[in-house]
Design a protein that fits this description.
amino-acid transport, transmembrane helix, Amino acid/polyamine transporter I, globular, 471 residues, single chain, transmembrane, membrane, symport
Length: 471
Amino acid sequence: MEEDGIIMAGKMDEELDDDGRPRRTGTVWTASSHIVTAVIGSGVLSLAWAMAQLGWIAGPLALALFALITVYTSSLLADCYRTDDPISGMRNVTYMRAVKSNLGGNKIWLCGLCQYVNLFGVSIGYTITAGLSAAAVSKSNCFHKKGQEAACSISTNVFMVGYGIIQIFLSQLPNFHKLWWLSIVAAVMSFAYSFIAVGLSAARIISGNTRKTSITGTIVGVDVSASQKVWSTFQALGDIAFSYSYSMILIEIQDTLRSPPAENKEMKKASLIGVVTTTTFYMLCGCLGYSAFGNQAPGNILTGFGFYEPYWLIDVGNVCIVAHLVGAYQVYCQPLFAAVETWFARKCPGLQILTHEHPITINKNLGCNINIFRLLWRTTFVVISTVLAMLMPFFNDVLSLLGAVGFWPLSVYFPIEMYISRNHIARSSPKWMLLQSLSFLCFLVSLAAACGSIEGVAQSLQHYSPFTSKT
């Protein structure tokens, strides 16, 4: 009996980390798939439009600079996963805990506000994109069956509701560590629709059916007015910033990595792989899309090829977008779910509704556990994000605003401040000045992007009635 107890204890030890949490099994490749899932999202669809606003010089340069900044600040943030020592220090399993350990004070609440508001915003943005893509499939099939002159406009609301219902079920997954398979599927889908967008753009270029491009993008007095040029340029920067926004969940992704080897070294490799991979696709999608459509590039590149032929290929692309966003939604929202549930568990430790799992058996081999609090709170979250997406289905404007809100504080400011604090960099020293200059420049970019996005939303609201969006 004693031997049995030793064996059982050994098995339990194998299943737990040194802090008593479930043992992490992630690798560089699973972390990279999480990053690709988070980064190559709906943002890639707007890059041809962003290039059209910036032109051939500023467009690729902006993509390259955002990529370099993201890789650099991600490496700073990865070092904050453990307190003091990157190998033996206490684990900071969330972004907020990393800020608490390294900065403390009111910055904890500022970080939480920025992170969770942005995560909530991403859930709205992904619902909008998934609804538009699903509606595009329906519209394409309608034109194919009834002809190009048919009245095939369709409401996006029913598709957003359907997407929300799927997320209600998936959101009941209790553990972020168990989402590796969903991220891999989603990453494959993101590659698929990116390849389709690149292929269709290349085919259009080869056929010679292209439109005018320019060094500076859209031309004042021809394509846009002077004020529109300024606002759209700012908005384009926000779209690019959104395309690289995964820092808000970087610590949570890093917490899936097994150790040894040291998590910070593995996460830096994963970030480099993820950002280089996505930037390659961004350059291809943005540059080829701009070459194909010129200064009239659409906000969503896949809808720019029309709803006619090859309708089946565009359908495949849009289906891949929806499938990808099903997984990406969970990658972004699971950290938010976990934060709220951990807070309630800490405030009400004796409340059974927070911890009790109700087993539900469908048959001998199929069943699951349901937690009542998790069911109610996560369902409410998904319903609210779906309703807000139906209220404001403005693709480019919403994505740009999300990029503006999340880029500077979460991708730049907090990683730099934590790095300065951890390494005791003297105030006004050359290194301190360089880091603060980078932070300030990124703040100005985020501020400009936010202004452009708000102006875009305001313009869109002037011609829109709630819950009437059609494509």
